[in-house]
Amino acid sequence: MTSPLVPHLESLKGYGPRTALADAIAGTILAILLVPQAMAYAQLAGLPPEAGLYAALVPPILYLLFGTSPYVSVGPVALISLVIAEAAGGADMEPITAAAIIGIEAGLILATLGALRLGRLVNFISEPVLLGFTAAVAILICASQLPTLLGTDPDRAGNLPDALAAFWSVLPDWQPATAAIGASALVLLLLLNAYAAPAAWKLGIRPPWRQAIAKSLPLLVIVGCAVAASMVPGEVPRASSPPSGLPSVKLPPLDPAPWLALLPSAIAVAVVIFATATAVAKSLAGSDRGELDTSREAVALGLGNIGASLIGGYAVSASLSRSALVEDSGGKTPVAHVIAAALVLAVLVFFAPVLAYLPKTALAALVISAIFGLVKLREMRGVWQHDRVEGALIAIAFVATLIFGVELGLAIGALAGLAHHLWFSSLPRVTRVGTDDGGETFRSVDRDSVDLTTLPLLILRIDRSIYFANCAFVEDEIFKLLGRHDDVTCLVIDMRAVNTVDASGAAMMRRVTERLYFDRIEVHFAECHEPVKERLSRLDSRQCEFHRSVRDAMDDCGSPVVRQIAPS
User: What is the pTM of this model?
Assistant: First the structure.
């Protein structure tokens, strides 16, 4: 197996003029959206607008070399921008320096996880926790951008109570003209997000031109806001002018103190990047029947974060909306994203002064209009209907993130998810099993209302793997169920649902078989998976036996039920 650190260009095999044209069209459409969006997300992160544009340059090239999806768009995203705003804003240094350190550290963490093929560790953050976390982040983003939308500029806050207090304190200073421009832009952007693409389809405009038109309209809204800002009385706050020309490589200070101080934030950023980016890549993986290598994804994301942070950008991730845009626009390979990055660079080199005319309120409207995809009410409702406890995890992550901020909220949600997993796995179901069709099938006596007709033979089924945290519970349940029947002479333990048994579980089984041996109760294990059987191979063969099926075990016990079955 090739190392994830070795570049590969599998997506470029057979690359030809037709594919290049499709990528050029998709890349151009992507750049139209990416330029104002990158500036808006940099504003959200509390960084100068060029930081967002710089962050869009290098990651697509590195993803082309190391990534596995043809559609994933790597660059600035709202979720990571908010995390950076909270972490960098509270650091005792320039925000852009703190953001660079966090991006490099997060990149090193991701690249290391990918190189060691440990990306699966991020799976310990459950889907309900991410749903609650991202929904809360959407509210925090909205709260952080509302003051800018109204023309005020309060101190940044990391949680909802502080953000609302800061907003309330500057509300008397709101600027009517700025607020009118921002509110108008927000309404127009929301309407375009909802109706532009369907309207283009009804007009007979088909892909890729449908998305080209639909995604160009928000840029026209931003340009219209710039024109309006120049015509209204009063000063409308505008974005600062990015420096013209190429970005340069800048290594942050090597003093270990700030690197250690920002490491917890970098870990949080790395976790959020990989969890959300992997979800984006998986959602698009079936489009070309391609295989997704999460280790390569981690390496590509890690190197992209390092590259972006070294040239004046900040941490990046995969954007679902931009990735879906490339797919819908007919893009075929990651070259489309590289073309978009080249166009962003062209804007920086030739049109940087023009960007200073963009009003901050319009960029805030662009951010707010893009956050609604973070609130997934349908998925939340599905989780709640599936399991009330997992629904509670959504609420825990949601409330914790709103009250305590992004980093602590994610940590609390992740710990709650792990606690739920440990509690759930520590209480495996041990149930009595019976048959109502002469031994052809076996079902739970208590759950399925099957009569217990096998006595003095008792069949128990363990419905989960056995390990140190639940083996004592399993032992207690076995003897509790045995205690309900005084005449048991043979115990059959159905192990079909037990995939693993650790050393503690094997020791528990040894205690059970020894005790039942002295109580003159035969013990028969049925349907053990081979790895489980090997784990239990040291059990005393005089005290227990292993069988391929429950029916074989019943035959060995001389069950009258099985003897009634006619041979097939």
Answer: 0.82
The strand pairing partners of 459, in sequence order, are: 433, 492
Q: Do β-strands 443-444 and 430-434 pair in parallel, antiparallel, or remain unpaired?
A: antiparallel
- In 3D space, the residue among 345, 340, 282 whose CA is nearest the CA of residue 311 turns out to be 345
DSSP designation for 501: B
Reported residue count of the chain is 568
Environment class of residue 168 by beta-carbon count within 10 Å: exposed (0-12), middle (13-18) or buried (19+)?
exposed
375 is written with which tokens?
């609130």
Per residue in 342-396, pLDDT tens? Answer: 999 999 999 888 888 899 999 999 999 888 878 888 989 998 998 888 999 999 9
Q: Which two tokens stand for residue 43?
A: 């504003």
Backbone phi, then psi, for 407, in 5-degree steps? -65, -55
DSSP 8-state assignment for residue 466: B
Which residues touch 294 (CB under 8 Å, ≥6 apart)? 114, 119, 120, 278, 281
- Biggest CA–CA distance in the chain, Å, is 97
How, if at all, do strands 73-75 and 430-434 pair? unpaired
Beta strands 545-547 and 522-526, pairing class:
parallel
Q: Record the tokens describing residue 63, joined without a space.
A: 């993803």
Q: Can you tell me the distance from the alpha carbon of 392 to that of 398, in angstroms, rounded to the nearest whole number?
A: 10
Is the omega angle on the peptide bond into residue 456 within 30 degrees of 0, that is, cis? yes
DSSP code, position 315: -
Write out pLDDT tens, residues 309-351. Answer: 999 999 999 998 888 888 877 888 899 999 999 999 999 999 8
The label of the residue with tokens 């970098």 reads: 266
Phi and psi of 545, rounded to 5°?
-135, 160
Cα distance between residue 364 and residue 41, in whole Å: 9
Q: What is the DSSP string of 235-268?
A: PPPBPPPPPSS-----PPP--HHHHHHTHHHHHH
The radius of gyration computed from the CA coordinates of the chain, to the nearest angstrom, equals 30
